[in-house]
Amino acid sequence: MKKVFVLIAAAIVSMSAMAQVQFGGKVGFDMTNFWGSNVEHGMKPGYQVGLMMEYKFSPKFAIAPEVVFAAQGGKSKALAFDINKHGIELAATDIKYNTNYINVPLMLKFYATPNFSIDLGPQVGFNVYSKVTAKGVDDAIDFKDATNAVDFGIGMGGTYNLTENAFVQARYTMGLTKVFKDEYILGENNAKNGNIQIAFGMKF
C-alpha cells in the first residue's frame, strides 16, 4: 500500500513539474458578420482586445481561458423611402449593425508541434453595446433591448508561438444562438454571430 501512495505522489509531483502556467494579453483584427438560413449580411471590420491564461498540463495539451472585448456585428441592405422632386421612391440603403461583446472562450489546445497548437472550445459572450446605423443618417438607433444579452458559440483555429512569449493566432468563432430577440424582428429571425479573428499576443 505504501508503494502505491509513493507512486501516486511521484506522479502528482511529476505532473506539477511538467505543468506550465502563463498569463498574457492579445489584440487583433476581426471580420464579423451574421450567418444563418435566409440571412444575407456582409462582412464588417472590427477589433478585439483581451487577457488570457494558458495552463499547459502536458507537452501536448493545454487549456486557455480568455476574457476578450470584441467589436462585432454585420452589414445588410434594406429598402428605405427616398423623398425627392420625383415623389416617393424606394431605394436600397446600407445598414450596419454594431454589436459589441465581452467574450469568454475556453480553448483546449493540442500542440501538434512544440510551437503550433490547434485550438477548439466553447465560448460565451455578453452583449454590452448594440446599435444600428443607416447610410446617410447621422443618428444611430439603440438596439440593445432587441439584442439577446448572452451569446453561445464555438471557436476553432490555431496559435503559433513566435518565441516563448510572443504568439500569433487565427480563429473562427461561430455563434450558436440568435443575436436578436424574435419579438423585434419581422419575418425569419435566424441571424447568428460569425467572427474571423487574427490576433497578436504576449505571454509572461
Biggest β-sheet: strands ordered side by side in the sheet: 1-2-3-4-5-7-8-9
Structural class: mainly beta
What's the helix count?
Answer: 1
Radius of gyration: 22 Å
* Overall mean confidence score, pLDDT: 85
Amino- and carboxy-terminal Cα gap: 41 Å
Sheet-strand content, in percent, reads over 45%
Provide the low-confidence segments as ranges.
11-18, 79-91
Largest sheet: 8 strands, antiparallel, barrel
Q: What is the strand tally? A: 9
Q: State the order of secondary-structure elements, H for helix, E for strand.
A: HEEEEEEEEE
Helix content: under 10%
Q: Which of globular, elongated, flat, extended, rod-shaped describes the shape?
A: elongated
Task: Provide an overview of this structure.
This protein is mainly β. It has one helix and nine strands; from the N terminus they run αβββββββββ. The protein has one helix at 2-18; strands spanning 20-35, 44-56, 61-84, 87-111, 116-134, 141-142, 150-161, 166-175, 192-203. Strands 1-2-3-4-5-7-8-9 form an eight-stranded antiparallel barrel. Strand 7 and strand 8 form a beta hairpin. Mean pLDDT is 85; it is low at 11-18 and 79-91.
Which terms summarize this structure?
204 residues, mainly beta, elongated
What is the topological layout?
Blueprint: H1 2-18, E1 20-35, E2 44-56, E3 61-84, E4 87-111, E5 116-134, E6 141-142, E7 150-161, E8 166-175, E9 192-203
Antiparallel strand pairs: 1-2, 1-9, 2-3, 3-4, 4-5, 5-6, 5-7, 7-8, 8-9
